[in-house]
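Posted in: Structural Biology > Protein-Ligand Complexes

Title: Requesting predicted complex, tryptophan in pocket

I'd be grateful if someone could produce the 3D structure tokens for the following input. Sequence and ligand are given below.
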Amino acid sequence: MQTRVLTGITTTGTPHLGNYVGAIRPAIEASRDPTVDAFYFMADYHALIKSDDPARIEASRLQIAATWLAGGLDPNHATFYRQSDILEVPELMWLLTCVSSKGMLNRAHAYKAAVDKNTEAGEDADAGVTAGLYMYPVLMAADILAFNANKVPVGRDQIQHIEMARDIAQRFNHIYGREFFVLPEAHIEEQVATLPGLDGRKMSKSYDNTVPLFEGGARRLRETIMRIVTDSRLPGEPKDTDDSALFTIFKAFATPAESAAFAEALKGGLGWGEAKQVLFERVEADVAPMRERYDALMARPDDIEDILLAGAVKARAIAAPLVSTLRDAVGLRSAKHRPVVQAQPRVAATAASKARSPRFASFREVDGSFRFRLFAVDGEELLLSANFADPKAAGAVRQRLGSMGGAAAVVESQGDHLALLLDGQVVATSPAHPDEVLRAAAVVRLREALDALAAAE
Ligand code: TRP
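-- Reply #1 --
Done. Output follows.
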């Protein structure tokens, strides 16, 4: 059983060493664990809450995508995408908004901080606060719940958001009476160091104390490292490594043996200037090959776009059926393809979904014709057959569908629907899937169901 691990990266700034050590590197490592099903995405809708500068939004999401790929994330293994390519996310956000308590959102740290600041300044409590900032936690809940993620690696400042996502998921499950959502858990990496910045405080854009990861190349990396604040001990004097930002950054890149040797040299009186050169060389040894890949990727934005769109297709294949189940659950149903059975939850299996095989349900129309539907294991309606005058003809088609297997199925798009053909005749159609990606995902599910039926024969 794989654990679905999901995290988002807000695309406002340019990645720095602290982002790399604290988030990117551990996430890429985790994605290589075969028990992990990693979903990593650019939270570019969230970025709009923080920035209304289109050029900056555009540049940042490209840079961040290139950074993760250059850092070694394998997009064929992890699901790597942009939030704004997943149309189901804003749709789910609305469904969640309608069960979220406003009082809960009033208590969100980021919103409260804005209100407190206004109050202190004697301004109106909500001065300058957008509804986007206010709704931030619901959008984040949609990011997580659209994929039923189990674990969400985040910084401490985000724990409250995960708790809200759990709260919202619970409310939705409760109101609509089924376990649609698994409850996500925040995952805080305890061993991962928060990197100090140039001034010794946590490396952060807001303190303006960052060391850029790739921007400006080796030269800029070296120049910035040379600006790290140290104490005033002279060369020859023993240096204290305990609260040295320089040494802490070194440790984040070096092996324990390398760190021990460096600590030894500092105690032995190595000058800070030379120490900075040693640090630069150690960081550069790791960063240089990644920077080369980064520059190559940034020179080919079309390739990055293709990778991200492929990631979006993979992601939507999961989010789309869930959101369609949810639409149905809240009553946003097609008047045509009305489900005959209640859709079963996708996640938590109930006794009723014990039959682990797709199934047919035959029925007679008022006009006397014979038809059937095909349902997936989770209750999703996959196909509705054409009308047959004679029950034997319907039975024969049903039998052929049951034994053909997914690969043999001839499926084509007809408007919003998929049509399944036998001997050049449309024998069944799917419910409407309003765009191409959704139809592609539905074809995959249909073929899977046909495979499962053939296997069960
Ligand atoms: N709010 C997160 C941050 O600033 C980014 C984010 C957006 C996120 N959506 C998410 C993180 C979903 C985890 C899961 O760090």
